[in-house]
């Protein structure tokens, strides 16, 4: 019969054959437990407290102390050392807190000790009952008088004394959560960030709403959608690329300040800042504009930074120890002016496509289906984007690339749109919203022409949205921000590390 890997502090990496052998050994232990009437997967165990509470309540005890406190604890076995009459284990709770447990012949009896040695492996979830003590070395422990299996692990844990590979971390996030405190901390950081944003919105009178994920017509952004089919309605549907057009319907209906935190789906590439499925925040403020929504966005990000920072300031500490300051007033720069300065020539909304194309060719910048707006944005990214270090609002975009945005009040050829750049990537975008239904229809028609010319990201004419807009939408400022990217700005990590269960090939 195959044998289980020896237990102890020095756990080595397993080959595929060794791992398969261990699985067989553990299955046999499960079968023997069932045959002998020991439940490997009970429905409950009599827990009285948590490991974290025991650790917090028993700080500073001297070595070899008996507290007289009797507890029932459960956790995963992450260290195991079996000797003759006294066995040691460390069990870990989901929050990462640990405690030593001591299983002795005197405490549990000969039969129970033998079953411990026979059945318990690294990775098992176990329940222990006993007295809180400190060992002769001063380690906080539970001296066990009863133990039970809470869940028998049929697969061995990875080596907890060495770094998991990135492949393992993203494909088997549950192992990452067991092994790395930083993985658990990211989950808490995301939760604190979302709670902070909701609190900020509430303080400004916003209402959280939910809009459809499945849509008959995709819109609200320039992106390629995922397509599916509804059997019930026998029609083609799209996973939404943005909630924008439905949130604007809410403004038409009189919900004047709304936001949504939910998933978007875009059938595009994946890299360190992009994921086909991602969490998105969108918000709309009636009687605001792109300046007021920029003020709100700065407050949202800075409050989130304070919620997750070590000292409650807007200075966050990234995973590599770098401190990044999100505080203060963030600069607002013009897209055209910053591009002109970086390129060394004057570029305006009147600059011809031919001149922009010539500049792009000289710089080796490739633009698919080039028009004025796409050339401006690609050239700006080439010349300017990488120079932005701290948070920066890039203001006043070309009209061709912003079909849902109001025309600029003083700059012909521009729209009142900004992109917020943090850490060199786009974190959020904000608009003074286009509320003229006639103008909006013309923009949609132009987008349809771009689609006919081969632009797969172009929007279609959305008659239902236009009908809603014709009922009168108030002037508004709108904003969209990637929640995963916000976590990147707060932690310095890539997008796959900020998502609990990222999509991988």
UniProtKB/TrEMBL annotation:
What organism does this protein naturally occur in? Gulosibacter macacae
Cofactor binding: number and manner: Binds 3 Mg(2+) ions per subunit.
EC number of this enzyme: 6.1.1.6
Quote the record's binding site residues for Mg(2+) 2: 426
The record's listing under PANTHER family reads: LYSINE--TRNA LIGASE, CHLOROPLASTIC_MITOCHONDRIAL, LYSYL-TRNA SYNTHETASE
What compartments host this protein?
Answer: Cytoplasm
One GO process term, biological-process aspect:
lysyl-tRNA aminoacylation
Q: Ranges of Basic and acidic residues compositional bias? A: 24-35
What protein does this entry describe?
Lysine--tRNA ligase
- Region of interest called Disordered, as start-end residue ranges on this chain: 1-37
């Amino acid at each position: 019969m195959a044998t289980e890997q020896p237990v102890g502090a020095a756990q080595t990496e397993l080959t595929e054959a060794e791992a398969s052998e261990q699985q067989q050994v553990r299955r046999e232990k499960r079968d023997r437990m069932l045959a002998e009437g020991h439940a490997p997967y009970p429905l409950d165990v009599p827990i009285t407290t948590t490991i974290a509470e025991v650790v917090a309540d028993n700080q500073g005890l001297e070595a070899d102390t008996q507290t007289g406190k009797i507890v029932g604890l459960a956790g995963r076995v992450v260290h195991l050392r079996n000797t003759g009459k006294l066995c040691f284990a460390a069990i870990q709770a989901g929050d990462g807190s640990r405690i030593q447990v001591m299983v002795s012949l005197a405490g549990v009896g000969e039969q129970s000790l033998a079953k411990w040695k026979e059945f318990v492996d690294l990775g098992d979830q176990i329940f222990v009952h006993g007295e809180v003590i400190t060992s002769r070395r001063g380690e906080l422990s539970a001296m066990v008088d009863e133990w039970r299996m809470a869940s028998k692990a049929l697969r061995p844990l990875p080596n907890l004394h060495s770094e998991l590979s990135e492949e393992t971390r993203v494909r088997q996030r549950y192992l990452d959560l067991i092994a790395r405190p930083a993985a658990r901390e990211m989950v808490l950081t995301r939760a604190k960030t979302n709670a902070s944003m909701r609190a900020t919105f509430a303080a400004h009178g916003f209402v959280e709403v939910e809009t459809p994920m499945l849509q008959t017509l995709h819109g609200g952004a320039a992106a390629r959608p995922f397509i599916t089919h509804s059997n019930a309605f026998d029609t083609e549907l799209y996973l939404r690329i943005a909630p924008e057009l439905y949130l604007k319907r809410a403004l038409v209906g009189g919900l004047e300040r709304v936001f949504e935190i939910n998933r978007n789906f875009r059938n595009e590439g994946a890299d360190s800042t992009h994921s086909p499925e991602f969490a998105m925040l969108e918000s709309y403020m009636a009687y605001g504009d792109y300046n007021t929504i920029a003020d709100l966005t700065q407050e949202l990000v800075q409050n989130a930074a304070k919620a997750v920072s070590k000292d409650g300031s807007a200075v966050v500490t990234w995973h590599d120890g770098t401190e990044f300051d999100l505080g203060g007033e963030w600069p607002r720069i013009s897209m055209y002016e910053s591009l002109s300065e970086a390129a060394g020539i004057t570029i305006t909304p009147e600059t011809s496509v031919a001149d922009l194309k010539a500049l792009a060719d000289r710089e080796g910048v490739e633009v698919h289906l080039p028009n004025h707006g796409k050339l401006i944005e690609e050239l700006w990214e080439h010349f300017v984007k990488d120079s932005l270090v701290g948070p920066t609002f890039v203001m006043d975009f070309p009209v061709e690339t912003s079909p849902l945005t109001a025309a600029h009040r003083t700059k012909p050829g521009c729209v009142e749109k900004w992109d917020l750049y943090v850490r060199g990537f786009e974190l959020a975008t904000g608009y003074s919203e286009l509320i003229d239904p006639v103008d909006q229809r013309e923009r949609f028609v132009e987008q349809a022409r771009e689609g006919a010319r081969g632009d797969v990201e172009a929007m279609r004419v959305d008659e239902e949205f236009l009908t809603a807009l014709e009922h009168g939408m108030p002037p508004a400022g709108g904003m969209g921000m990637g929640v995963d990217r916000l976590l990147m700005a707060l932690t310095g990590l890539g997008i796959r590390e900020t998502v609990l269960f990222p999509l991988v090939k």
